[in-house]
Amino acid sequence: MASDLKDIFWKRLDNVQAGLLSADSERPIPMAPQADRDDKAIWFIAAKGSAADRAAKSGGEARFDVADPKAGIYAVIEGKLDEGSGEKLDEVWNAFAGAWFENGKDDPSATLVKMTPHTAEVWATENSLAFFYEVAKANLTSDTASGGDHGRLTF
């Protein structure tokens, strides 16, 4: 199940629009993840001088919390932050990031941060219709509802 859940994790993380990233025990801030299964990484476009940027420069630890019912995933992801390259910034840049940086990807305050996950606790939920079916079934039987797959992953 763990390998199936890991596959589900990467597929659904790719559909997450935002989560909360906290670096080096500082307050969490909303960030848009860019999942990269091949690189086993989660990329974030951050502002230079931010907690994420400072942690990336020092190889610090971070936590990314996701609660996205539309993507069908809830997760607590822990890992290490590192600096990203300009080439990768070009690859992951999008209109959402452009809304935060006046000069787009060439803005001097834009930087790329790479999170390499160590562990994650993941809840992969069913779609709304399946969830309501599970709730109705649980109320009509002695069973409890199934919320989908849950497990702890190591990367």
UniProtKB/TrEMBL annotation:
Record-linked InterPro entries: Split_barrel_FMN-bd, Stress-Dev_Protein, YdaG_split_barrel_FMN-bd
Q: What is this protein called?
A: General stress protein FMN-binding split barrel domain-containing protein
Source organism, top-level taxon: Bacteria
Q: Gene3D superfamilies recorded for this chain?
A: Electron Transport, Fmn-binding Protein, Chain A
Classification lineage:
Bacteria, Pseudomonadati, Pseudomonadota, Alphaproteobacteria, Rhodobacterales
Looking at the record, the residues that make up the General stress protein FMN-binding split barrel domain are: 7-144
Alphabetized SUPFAM superfamilies for the sequence? FMN-binding split barrel (SSF50475)
